[in-house]
Amino acid sequence: MKKQLIIKKKWLTILSTLSALTVLTTLSCSSKAKQNEEATNNISKDSNSDSYSNIKNNINNEKLNQISLNLRQDAQIAIKNFNIKLFSGSITKDNFSNYFTFNNTDQYDYEIENIKTDPNNNNKLNFDVFVFNKQKSEKGKITRSFSFENDIQEIINEESKKEEFEHYIEIKDTTKNLYAATEFFKNKNYTNLIRPLHRRYFTFRIKNVTKTTMDKANVVLEMLLNDKIVKEFSVTSSNWKGQEFLNLSNDKKSKYLLDKHIARYNELLSLKDFKKKAPINYSPKDVVLSDIFNIEQIDGYKIEIEKVSNSENLEAAKLKYKFKITNLKTNTVTYSNPHELGGFARPNDPTNYDDFNDEYFKTTSDEQKNQDNTKLQEDVKKINGYNFNLRKTGDFSYLDPSFMNSKNLRYFLGFTGPERVEIEVEDENGATGKKKIKPYNYDKDIQIEGANESGVSLLKLQNDYFFAFYDVKASTSKDNYKTQGGNDELTFKLGLINKKNPKIKAHTNTIKLVNLKNEVADKYFRIVDLNKITLDNLEIKNSELSNISVSELISKNNSQDLIKVKYDKNLFKYKKYNLKESKYIEDFKIVASKEINGNTYIQLGFDKNWSTKKDEDKQEKSSTWIKINGLKNNDKNDLKINSNYEILKSLGINSNLLKLQNSQNEFSRYRKLEFSWKNGIWKTNTDKSKIEYLLPNDHFKEIFENTSSNVSERLIHLDLPIFFNNGFKSFELQFLNKSDKWAYATINYDKLRTSKTITISNLKANGQGNKKDNTTEFSLKATLRDDGIFIEIIPSYPGLKFTQNLFKDVLNGYPKDFNSNEDEIDETRVNKDIAIFYDSHATKIALSYKNNIKNENFIDYQTNIFDYDKVTFTQENQPFVTRNKYTNENIYKFNFNQNVPYKWSEGYKTNLEVLHDDYDFKEFNDIKARVFRSEGTTGGTFTMFKKLNNDKNDYKFYVITNEHVVEDPFDMLNRPTKYLKRSHLLMHNNHLTNDLYNGEKFYEGQYNLETLGLTSFWYNKQNDPKRNNHYIDVHISIVDIKNMINEAKNSSRHEMAAWLENWMNLKDLDFSYETLYESKSKSHLTYESLYSGFPQGKLYSYMHTRPWVNESIMQFSKDDFLPVFNRPGNSGTSVFNNNGQLWSIINSANFDVTGVAYLMSNPNVDHYGSNANGNPLLKTYKYSVIAQLYRANAYDPYQFKLFEESKVK
């Protein structure tokens, strides 16, 4: 008997370590995690002793006795205001400091050792506390108690009503399939295979087992509140399906365990790299399963996966596999039964482009007389240019013939014809009942002369045939284009392969299309080229200029004879200029001139060939001016200006980068700088006596400290939104929005570099004047530091202080009759505490300088590349080709050219960008890992927001969307959650079907599961009087994905299973408060914003650099050339910033034009309630997210852990 027990224990030990059975490892780890947690508490207690082992316990008892435990004042306010119901079980080490404090925290630090339920009173807690003096030279230990008014007994009774054992202690289904109840509960064999659960405040443990059968056990549980047993009760564990196997022979045990293990089939498979080696990337015919899958092993065996020969079902994207099992002891090999596995790539148009030619697309001889082949051969000979139209991205075609090939042409040419099924329509005489092909949706401009409709519908043929372009060749009939390497014509052939019988093939004759172009490149590249022109590119007839004035040069329209722009194939990006004599560009001409200091400056431009709203906009003018010598001077028009900056200013400094070429090797520039929300905000100092700002090094140093250039006359220009707050009548209209009312200062960098500090005095801030201008003076101090230029603005009049509270102190800071027309309010009568206003976000700083650099480029790579090798083809059937080489290092790095459109390829950052799915940088990867589509009462986009708690075995998460998507109100003041419904989850993926890709369907396939349970946690009901009508369209739900992971594996959704499992590795999100500043000038700064959403169920991802922002919303609009899909389904889309936080949630849209997101915090209400801008316990809005969290945490502190941003700092 003793020997038998030893054998059993040995097998139990083996079982507890077998990786083959998830149940054993997981539950063993869970149990150990619980033990480790308890051990950690003990270790923490001991380590305190170790850490402070040299500290004597010499805080005397008299001092210790004076220490009292108190409920915090702010906690008392929050308990009442937020309706928090505290019970003795509500307090844990994690939330203790948010509710309690000690009376002398200025003298001592405290650390909770243990929280215990009082032996005689379940509503009383005893706290064992370590006490340390501030110098950590003395320590002591105290116990303090606190009694709670709310009686916990009713909760004890309520939380012990359930009769199912598994409600209190978790056992995996795989364990119950393996064991018989009799054997599992015998001799405490369950010890490492169960995980006690928290039910609100309580945990549970087995006291004894009263009765067992093979499939059932009756058990007595002990219910614990902290360390105290508060109740015992009986429960039943049912539905055990295993066998008694511990007494079997070793061979039979092994066989039993192996069979149970193998029977899990798909559950044993996990992807080696779900981001790069997902099944969807492989055809069932070609996949090597061992390359993409890991297999959960079992001790004593080696398990491998093999594809069953000829088991592939290509249409269904499935195959069958079997496990090859090697007994490591005997080296014998056995195989499992075959099992089905899906989720692979479906058949699509052929991609073996190198094989395509006329011979490849010939029907085999044995199918020549096939009726389908005969009809196909008749049709293909009719196909011509009318069967194709341009696939546009928004309003623009990107089809540049020079970059087309067999691989990418399909993305830019669509098929014309009627719907895929012919329908009855009226004929020309109105007669019905006749089947007729609807008119072709062709592009007339790209058809060759004399072509006619073919009568064949490629859209209809696409149902039965695969297509492939080949023999793709670019050309042009224009000699000018040939000289430059530009093309506007394209010839190609189209091959067809029957989907059911691939022996039937055909190909068209050569098809020609004309007038093709990348419309965006053709627009921007000319602007880029225009601003590259310098003296090197001009051919000037100096001998003929001396008798001609500038005005004559332009008016006589002979500038292109006397000053010509030479074509340079290597310099200019546009390839379709009108060339004279094959070497001069006729498109560019002089559009403006100025005479300064006896010199002539000319500005070049060209006539736009795209539509404009105003006549004056019909010319594109260069931002570069070039000094030309030799023209006759007109003294009447000659400006006399001394400084470099004044010359630049006279030429007009409206563009973000103005360049002036003074000579062959001297250039002057005026460059406006762009700032982000991270580095562009001015702030008051502590006592509000100064405004401070740090101009970071990366915004000036690379230019001003460039040792390879002869940089000189370095000035920093500051337009300062500083105003004398003396009772404005119309502040925004008459002051803030008028640049001439702003103060202005110039920092001479040459002097600052020498002296390290300079002060500019007697600067004036404008105020409300009635009979005369009313101002107050201030000074500006600039200090050159290691981290940049530190700027301070200081009032000259003693005692005046700054405010940045626009609404309270400026718009509403004085009575309405203050500063009437009869009064002039000076410094003696103004409210000194709010005397000067400075708009925190109205940052306008520019640099002016000279150097010898012809073209300033600050990066060694190109931006905004038209990449025809990596085309993103969307579910909207639009090609996106504009790309940037983003990395974690450069994605948000400042570039001096980022706000200069004509630096398109040298750093310009467009307002709107499509984020291609293969972009690999941190913030976008995080979005792809947590965004999904689901439905509440309507469909929308959801984002995994946070994990509920830090339990590694708990797979519950908060998810966030719009309130109008979920619409599930409940009494948040009195309950933590409300179950909503079961819904679907469509994960973020790049494999949904479009016209060219036979992928996954919206509600079907491997990226969708129908078993997502949504439980409402926080909502915001519109126009609720109890909330003072504060409303934001945001809803937070809770989802539990634990069972979905195994469900995904069992249904061949292994990529989805891995994606869901990865949620456990993602960081928690929170909301940014950086938009909460009271400023009317927030849009002066960039707010890098990223989001992915599902407009009409079609996935799109964007980055907006310059959204419009005010005190309550962010607005995201389409770009001049890039479409933005704002449609139903985009509701609920989370907007991420470049700091790993959320700005807000998109809730409304102007269809395909603008999306709007209301901010979680605004001057009227803080819907979130974070500690980012104050004590969360003292915030007054009882319906905030954090207020609901405090109620939920008091209800169940183990389920609803406090967020870091909810804790008192």
Automatic annotation (TrEMBL):
Signal peptide region: 1-33
Keywords linked to the UniProt accession: Signal
Organism: Mycoplasmopsis alligatoris A21JP2
Keyword Calcium: no
Domain of life: Bacteria
Ranges of Low complexity composition bias in the record: 41-54
Protein name: Lipoprotein
Residue ranges of the region described as Disordered: 35-54
